[in-house]
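Reviewers of the previous submission asked for a worked example of the structure-prediction workflow described in the proposal, so we include one complete record here. The input consisted solely of the amino acid sequence. No template or homolog information was supplied to the procedure at any stage.
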Amino acid sequence: MRKAVSLSLFVPVLVLLALAVVPSLAGGYATGLALKIMIYALFALSLQLLVGGAGLVSLGHAAFFGIGAYCAALLTPSAGPAPLWWLLPAAVLGAGVYALATGALALRTRGIYFIMVTLAFSQMAYYVFHDTKVGGGSDGIYLYFRPEPALGGGLLFDLSSDTAFYFFALACLALGWLFVGMLRRSPFGAALAGIRISEQRMRAAGYDTYPYKLTAYVLAGMLAGLAGFLYALKDGFVTPELLAWEQSGLALLMVILGGLRRPGGAVLGAASLVLLQELFQSEAVFGTYAQHWHLSLGLAIIALVALLPDGLIGLPARLRGTGKPPGMHAPAHACAPDDAGEETAAPGRADSARDGAARGARPTLVASGGPHG
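From that input alone, the workflow returned the following structure tokens.
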């Protein structure tokens, strides 16, 4: 167990260190590509918290991504940069408020109905920015100045520098990854795992599952708002397409491609999808076939999902011959998040969530406070 935890902590650190040396070893194109990967990885991590953590599949997650981007653009004065210390929280809270308002209603539904309601709320936000003058309508809006991280009258660092902004985005990804990993291994994360395994049994055991799901929904929305904030600062331009359902589908595809059960899977899925897009669009590699890159990308994704049902993050285990064959899955009660959000045996958490009601005992998912009914 300790060896698995050490490895699960070593891999994220190694990935972050590799990203940190990109600006010094690669050119501007590679650095820009790495920056795009980091932002989408943060976006995918926010959705992974819902899908992999609580089993809530949302097709409206792009709304929070776009709202975070629009808050950054709309709240930045045209005369000069805004202070980072209030612009960033405003973008994150703006996405969180919309997540709270929509999640309070969407989470009253389940299954396919939840998916459709989240899609409807996302499209509502899309049309607000697309069909009105808010944010420049369909033409979008420019962000001419990146915010200033000033403290005591002086700048801590200059975000107008592409290198400084790159490391700022890297720090945001590291904190977001750490946050999701710690959340998944906390009593709250264990409660979400119990809801994912069997919400009905959690309720039978005395837990009010609605507050847990709503909290996860809001936290995921705020994390997506942070990713949108970074996206706006990267390009200096925001359009309503950031809120379109295609963006939600893209994030969901990243989570599925990388692996549903581990936060690292979202990061790996984001990197893989962005790199595959760049590869299939390259005329130097595919010549005139690059014009049909959507077809090539689709076929590649179908092949990867079919061959790796556990996602790309499960590839090492499959190569070692310890992975599960397609269609075979470990018992749900044997899985709970460990230190980095990995799925490992934890009978005191997910096992009690799944089987506590059957045994007539109260589950031990929450360390303090007990169930809330």
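The radius of gyration is 21 Å. We consider this example representative of the routine output the project will generate in years two and three.
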